[in-house]
Amino acid sequence: MLGVFVVVGAATGFLLTAMERQAAVLQATALESQHEALAEIMDDSIKSAVDFQIYQAAPNIGNGPLAPGNSSGDWLVCVNQNGTREFHFDGGQIEYQQTENGVVQKRVFPGASRSPSNDQQPNGQPNSGEPTNGQPIFNSNLGIVQAQWDVTTTVDQVPFNVFGVPLQMQ
Amino acid sequence: MSWICPIRTDRNCGRNRGALPRLRGRVERRSIVTYGIQWSKLCIVPTEVLQRCLILRARRPRDLAPSSRSVDNRAQDGARRYIVMSLCSPRPRQRGSAPGLRLQSAFSLVEVLASLFILTLSAAGITAAWRLADYQELLTRVDRRAERILRQYYELQTFAPPDSRPFTVNASPAQSPVTGYLYYPRSIANQTGSTGVGKLIPFSLSLTNGTASGTSQLVLTYTVPSFGTQASRQVTKTVVLNP
User: Fold this and answer.
1) Record: contact B126-A144, CB cut-off 8 A
2) Full domain range(s) for residue A77
3) Quick check: A158 and B184 CB within 8 A?
4) Cβ of residue A12 closer than 8 Å to a chain B Cβ
5) Chain segment B161-219, per-residue pLDDT in tens
6) Which range has the worst mean pLDDT, A114-118, A144-148, B157-161?
7) B156 CB contacts (<8 Å, ≥6 apart)?
8) Total domains present in chain A
């Protein structure tokens, strides 16, 4: 009886370890899927924007046109025909806020970090300037709106790059 | 199979020694003898029952033997008793001596080997299933990342200003492809940290110029790692660019 207990206990422990690993993989997949959805939302918002700005600080959004922004920052505001979409990186997560007809919807995507591996331009040429570690995740270099961030899951690190060209820039 | 039958001495046997059940009927006697023989074949007879049976036979052999049995039957019954004693009672007690209070708890060699065998089989099965699930999950994630990268560069090549495009269509010198990695696993020592990632599954993205106009396409190629008997294979994804 004790031998059976030992065998069943060892097998159960091993099985629990495997299940824990599989749960970590599923959690990583879920987190990646969330940020993939965020990237699609961001890409759609940028491409359909009739007005957009990048800010380094929290913007004051009114009913009028957007105030002039910066070439890079952690705030991205896109205005399209349906409403306003704001993206904000606060150092550990990306907040997405959608305002349509006065209705505000907010979603938070955790696990984001600045991309330290951003050592390549989109055309494959390496950046020759200062290291990009610590740079804001939004910029409009090269004439296109870019968003680059990393997602650190329980298993791996997933880089996300969004390249979008708004309607007024096409 | 002796590994499923731990031989133990019950305390009740020592406590109730001498208090043997009386056998009054023939059916009851037969049932006791029959059980003793069958359990001895399987070797799962408790020592208490076996000892009671043997003591009964030693003290009152005439009561145990049915009156209608012949001499041959008695001889055969004696042989069965010898089998019982030789298989499951390594040290037959002497007449009149009661069993002592002794507790035996140990594993036989067959028991340990069988446990190790079952444990090894379980570990191998769980590990194989675990690795297969991990591998399939990795393939799925890598495939999605490849499609995402291809979609990003399609947007870039299509809508970005000409100076910012990664490739130039119909360029005279061959352009170097854009390379990168699809999988950045975290190091074992840095599971709780944020740094220390490896680089696996490299990909290569290039532009293929077609002969006709509007047939240029982006080609993304990466190599899937091998798993078990499956050899590593190359996966190619393409997207045709708008003219």
Assistant:
1) no
2) 2-169
3) yes
4) no
5) 888 888 887 777 778 899 999 999 988 765 555 557 888 999 999 988 876 666 788 99
6) A114-118
7) A122, A144, A163, B164, B165, B166
8) 1
